[in-house]
DNA sequence: ATAGCTGCAAATGCTTTGCAAGGCC
DNA sequence: GGCCTTGCAAAGCATTTGCAGCTAT
């Protein structure tokens, strides 16, 4: 797991992504990458930032999330129409989605094996394989 | 593959789903289930119906698609934020998604094997496993 | 007759964009 | 100083909803 706790790490991470280390981006990066792996929506991250006392506009949150995604710091995932999550864990892994609570949990990549892949059309390259295991009726412990 | 070509088949299919066989639902069902397997968006189905000379409001298309989905005649799948496809193939299978063209293709369920499943929280039941293989850079033949 | 369905248009919710002001290098 | 960023508010898009009128049974 990526460890980026110090301010310098955060600054460097943003700079390495080819982005200016502005106050907003650093604050958001700190929220995203200081703890363990996270799955957040733009809305969630926005209210978190407000809760922590620094204000970032929602538009900037969206912009930043997409910039981080393009830079490879985040992975976007779509579970429901009209709701995008951003996953701070960019290693190969899959997801367990609790339909009732909307909670998302990682599944280690090697817990789900993909067998034989279908033949791809000539020239096509796999950019990613998303596996979402949808679960019902029982909310996770928390 | 489901074969439902005659009007009677269509009527029965809708009736079996617990829905009244109205003109609109029958027309849409005919578009959806007369050919082979299809992946359509609400918007697509709506313009198809207009093209065929019968008019159905977009709201009704959405309602109908969701009613069919709830009844188990369709399967909804989300590949991109803000775009829902409805798949007339409800058997176990997965998808190849061409990111450039937005085209979706079925992958036979047995071409992708799921190995060991992660332990689920107590009481949880898998409602579905979605596997989307995202492909880049090459549009399919058609 | 009546319960269910449809159509329209307005409302919703998430996301993106345009543009003026501000901040990093 | 110059260019990238930000913030706000407005626009955008897909989808849903409210309600009056219509239709299958």
Overall description:
The structure is a homodimer of 142-residue chains. Chain A has 142 residues and is of the alpha+beta class. Helices cover 31% and strands 26% of the residues of chain A. Chain A has 4 helices and 6 strands; from the N terminus they run ααβααβββββ. The first copy, chain A, has a 3-stranded antiparallel β-sheet with strand order 1-3-2. In chain A, strands 5-4-6 form a 3-stranded mixed β-sheet, with no helix packed on it. Chain A binds chain B through residues 76, 78-84, 96, 98-99, 107-108, 111-118, 120-138, 140-141, and chain B through 76, 78-84, 96, 98-99, 107-108, 111-118, 120-138, 140-141. Strand 6 (125-136) of chain A pairs antiparallel with strand 6 (125-136) of chain B. The first copy, chain A, binds a DNA duplex (25 and 25 nucleotides) through helix 2 and helix 4.
Brief sketch in words of this structure:
The first copy, chain A, is an alpha+beta fold and 142 residues long. In chain A, 31% of the residues lie in helices and 26% in strands. Chain A has helices at 7-16, 23-33, 42-51, 58-70; strands at residues 39-40, 75-80, 83-87, 93-98, 103-108, 125-136.
